[in-house]
Amino acid sequence: MPSRAANYPALSEEAFMARASARLEEVYGSRRDEIMRRLMTLLMHQRSALDTLPRPTWSERDQILITYGDTIIDGERPPLEVMDDFLATRLNGTFSGLHILPFFPWSSDDGFSVIHYREVNPKLGDWQDIRRLASRVDLMVDLVINHVSRDSLWFIDYLSGTQPGRDYFIEMDPETDLSMVTRPRNSPLLVPVSTRRGTRHLWATFSEDQIDLNFANPDVLLEFIGILLYYVQQGARIIRLDAITYLWKEVGTPCVHLPQTHAIVRLLRAILDFMAPGTLLITETNVPHQENMSYFGLERLAPEPQAEGHDDESPSMPDEAHMIYQFTLPPLLVHTLTSGDATTLADWARSLPTLPPGCTYFNFTASHDGIGVRALEGLLPSHELEIMLELMHRFGGYVSMKTNADGSDSPYEINITYYDAMKGTRRGADAWQVERFLCSQNLMLALQGIPGVYFHSLTATLNDHGGVERSGKLRSINRRRWPKEELDELIDSRSTPTREAFTSLKRRLNIRANEPCFHPEAGQRVLDTPPGIFAIERGPLANGRRLLAIYNISDTRQPLEIDELNGGEWYDVLKDGKRWSPHPDERDILRPYRSLWLVQP
């Protein structure tokens, strides 16, 4: 396991009960005491099976690989076993963590329509395979909490009118005015279902196969708390709350980010801090930037609810997510590197608040989903967004749409591999694709937070149009399954983009993991540069060490007009720590898409 800087404090039973009671009152009001008794019974029953000793939080060594369980296929071998071998032989020590996307039995959406939450899909392997991976790296597991498959036992209970599933879903009169509800898709919000009681209409945010669960019923919440603790027992170190934005529904509101949703996230955080301190909670909220930031709960930093007889009024630690996805970064980097102008990126990075200890960003450029564009609302003018969307079409991508309150459609995400998103600039495709792509990854790796690298970025995967044709789903363009023999050949062959991306990213990740200026809580400052350059300072640390990460984000040579370079000697950690000095023929000039990581000890 990777070493980390400091332990995260455990939550005492007394403090937990005060905090949990307050959260339950926010959600369920007068039913608080009854639900609290049931919660404590559940927790005490589970506690003996958990490691309750505090574990360290994070350090510069933390970097996470994102993958499906069956991204690599090797004959009849269980894919989870194949992935374990790949980590051991190809990536030994490179990643501290692994996010295996939903590995449960599922019916659609490549895993996010879960049938059985406590089972491993037998096509992938079994719990022993999961535990083996968890012993090698910090394991991130999805808690798919907003919705469930129509093939689940809960839904079968609902159809027959039996418990417990009978009251697990949200029935709605189809005549109800739901125009205020924020829609992430253009599918109908209500799905007609034939039951023994006749046709009912159920809430389904994402698809007719993903039926939303009713958290106004506390039985549903307690069910998921049990599932959460089961994942921790199996070795999960990081819990990802999928689609948490939409959890609580209230007619007459947008049904996103409601106070009850935040209260439930804070309750889950308190449970982890009490039952398995050091287990991290990350929220997946693909929404505009400021809305995403709300899941840190920073605006609520105030004295903690205290048990009776305690008068401590010291300010509390952040009590919501440990990490949030930096959803603004993927589309903003596409804009930056295809336009050759870092102005918007620099302005956005300057706007990021200083986070207190115990909070950090999860930085990424690509994931199993598309490149969401909602996070750019308020940051990028509409005409600039249109230029980017048209360019992604030219590079072989698609655009998925969502339905707005007025019935119109608008872009929701770009479906394209990140490597092909870097195929060229606004002038079209060019010869700089590999260099441009690696610049995007190097830039992401240097930003404050913990980096996540999608497997298909590691392998510079091309758009999988065949996968789209087979599945009928646009997101399949970025979800290729690699035959192991083919992948091995591309990695081991000379002069393939896969080999260049894999070896270059592996080297940079290993350098990053040994540079203390990349600790998630090391300071970050955006430097003043010309539009063709983006540069940040990380640090200074307590010992004075600082790092400058400098990038030419354009396809032309750029002047190194950065005042900070004039003070003292700098050493290039990307060049084995050698003293940095510009080439005599290129003094004060940075070549297209070149990256510098310069340290001053």
Automatic annotation (TrEMBL):
Keywords recorded for this protein, A-Z: Glycosyltransferase, Transferase
Signal peptide (from-to): none
Glycosyl hydrolase family 13 catalytic domain: residues covered: 63-512
Domain of life: Bacteria
Record-given protein name: Sugar phosphorylase
Biological classification of the source: Bacteria, Pseudomonadati, Pseudomonadota, Gammaproteobacteria, Oceanospirillales
